[in-house]
């Protein structure tokens, strides 16, 4: 049997990776990754008016 794929959860406007915590908890046993996009969460201090795609990939 093949391994189930990992899930990547990306938040919407005015949210951060924290908004996925309840869902992450309910998906026990699955590999789940979340991200903080530039301008919110833990990376808001590095935000510019128009972050480059390289910045988003690095995050």
Automatic annotation (TrEMBL):
- Write down what this protein is called: Alpha/beta fold hydrolase
User: Which organism is this entry from?
Assistant: Kribbella sandramycini
Q: Where is the AB hydrolase-1 domain?
A: 7-52
Q: Which InterPro entries match?
A: AB_hydrolase_1 (IPR000073), AB_hydrolase_fold (IPR029058)
Q: Which domain of life is it from?
A: Bacteria
Cite the GO molecular-function annotations of the record.
hydrolase activity
* Keyword annotations from UniProtKB, A to Z: Hydrolase
The answer to keyword Hydrolase applying to this record is yes
Annotated Gene3D superfamilies? alpha/beta hydrolase
- Keyword set includes Hydrolase: yes
Pfam families reported in the protein's UniProt record: Abhydrolase_6 (PF12697)
């Amino acid at each position: 049997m093949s391994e189930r794929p990992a899930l990547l959860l990306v938040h919407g406007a005015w949210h951060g990776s924290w908004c996925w915590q309840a869902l992450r908890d309910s998906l026990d046993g699955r590999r789940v990754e979340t991200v903080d996009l530039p301008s919110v969460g833990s990376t808001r201090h590095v935000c510019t008016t128009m972050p480059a795609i390289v910045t988003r990939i690095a995050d």
